[in-house]
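Same chain as my last thread, 327 residues:
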Amino acid sequence: EGRFGVEQAMESYLAGREGWREHLRDTRGLLVPGDSTSLKPPRAGLNVKLTIDMGLQAIAEEELDAGLKEFVSSQGAVVMMDPKTGEVLALVSRPNFDLNLKEGLGENGDANMNYAIQAVYEPGSTIKIVATSGALNEGLVTPFTTINCYNGLYQSGGVRIVDEHPAASLSFEGVLQKSNNNGTCSLGRQLGAKRFYEYLHAYGFGKKSGIQLSAESAGMARNTNNAVDFNNACFGYATAVTPLQLACAYSVIAGDGKLRKPHIVRQLIANDGTVVEDFQPEVVNTVLKPETARKMRLALEKVVLTGGTATRSAVLGFKVAGKTGTA
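reply #2:
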């Protein structure tokens, strides 16, 4: 019986069902000849074909283990997705346990948890794509608009925002490249709290993605109608997300503005090879105009180039777009 992950989520398909036949017997226990019998044939369990690429999965596991060792940490997750289909190509969670032997299960509660879909945390600056892309999508700014960054300190009533690397002003692209808190909040205030939270929800935050895995967390993305919470939410606090939700959100930018439902099961297949069900890509909603998504990709490319905060993510020979986040 499946108790975790795909096996629990797809248990009804994997398990199959028992069959039965009814007979009429006489007082001696012998079958009555000529009696009509009732029959329900058994159904063999179906095979589940995953979207996981075993080569990428192996690399992701090795790299996560190496990263945890380098930074003396025990918990972490990696999610790799195809942004044009929503297919999960690799998904890793640490700590873990041997699923075959179940060694370590119960000894460490953390090992029972899939951090990729269950860990809920404040995302920090990775969430800055919401306020920035929203303002860009609404036509409030262009990639080259100058944004007031308040010399590193904004204070109004109970709202107080500080930047470790202050700037008087930056271009829209510069706000992302330098990960400027005040610049992001300026864009968030231009967008307004109502529209900001509409975009936050449109990106898929605050609700389960519906992936075919058990015990997924919904996170938290609630409009409290509080100015402090709103400003904090613009740069990654007063909001809680899962790694999978964040991967789906960035897939919106990589996937021409559409939020796609993540899926880890590609097909259900009978024992004779017949495909019983084929899971096709599914668009949940359209978040950004394709042109906005393109402009966001160009802005996020600058984050990994010289002058940006993610220069270690540059890969020679490839175009890389990304965003740092510290929480």
